[in-house]
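Run log // design_07
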């Protein structure tokens, strides 16, 4: 007899020097609501349900380098965010606190860095 194991992805977690600061950036960027807020852990809820985005304080956080060289702190993951308009979304991201990455590998995708240095991509279908 085989039992069905149910597994549900509830959130992606990003480490940062200050969980609340990074959560505030993504709250402004995405317009998501805070689900849980404590000094070292903040969770944002995706509208309509589904997996959220969480942030944890990591005192020894090391910013990833984009693009990374052989001895650089590597990016462990990145977020892909679909948008209607790359230019307008880019202005919004910068106003929220993002930085446009110097290196842009594709014409239809824009790479930005969040305040903790995590790369994220804005893209249009």
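design_07 sequence
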């Amino acid at each position: 007899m085989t039992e069905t194991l149910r597994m549900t992805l509830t959130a992606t977690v990003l480490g940062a020097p200050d969980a609340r600061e990074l959560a505030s950036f993504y709250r402004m960027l995405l317009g998501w609501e805070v689900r849980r807020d404590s000094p070292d852990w903040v969770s944002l809820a995706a509208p309509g349900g589904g997996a959220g985005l969480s942030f944890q304080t990591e005192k020894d956080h090391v910013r990833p380098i984009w693009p990374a060289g052989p001895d650089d702190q590597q990016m462990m993951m990145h977020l892909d965010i679909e948008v209607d308009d790359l230019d307008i979304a880019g202005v919004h991201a910068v106003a929220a606190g993002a930085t446009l990455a110097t290196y842009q590998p594709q014409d239809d995708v824009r790479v930005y860095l969040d305040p903790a240095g995590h790369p994220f991509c804005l893209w249009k279908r």
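Helices lie at 19-30, 86-96.
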